[in-house]
Amino acid sequence: MGLLSWLPGRSRDPYWDAFVNRPLADPANSITGAIRNAPEGRIFPVRSELPESDRLLQDLDQLVGFLGGSAIGVARTETAFLLTGDDAEAELDPADLAADHPLTVVVAVHAEHHPDRTKGMAAQHVLHESASVNFSLAAYIRELGYRATVRPVDPAAAARAAGLEPGRDEYVGDAVLTDLPLPLGRPGA
Predict the structure, then answer these.
(1) Longest alpha-carbon distance in the chain
(2) Which residue in 186, 15, 23 sits closest to 118, CA to CA?
């Protein structure tokens, strides 16, 4: 019984409770901001030869799974679900952004502690993972020779448009806007 009392969710340990539930005292202790503010790389000048679009989406789904994501979907970029951020590029006109990046790739990650319900470091891990997966996916797309940028979106609207229905244990954060020719929806759908 002593061992089981230390498992997450069963413990009455005040340190574990603080870890899960107490917000960070200093936002600089979160890597999410560093990932979001990292400069984007350049677009490779020669576009790679791509497989047919359904196969490409399946390949990206495998990449996202390797990076830590649980689901991927693609929607047309709509200015309605683009949010403005606090960064310097927030002045970009959403219509121009949507014209240059006609597709939105939405990635869900597994969320044992969802950031909307839990404010502590345990939920921050989900934010870190989401930011990391999106950053890496955008970098990969740029290496293929296509535009890709990570932008804040209305997660519910973007996920719905991409054919995703994130469950209670999934989290959708920012999305990757791109001009990579992908089919709409989920892989295999």
Answers:
(1) 61
(2) 23
| Residue 130 predicted with pLDDT over 80 | yes
What pTM does this model have? 0.83
Please report the pLDDT score of residue 36 as a whole number.
81
- Residue 27 exposure: Cα atoms within 13 Å on the Cβ side: 4
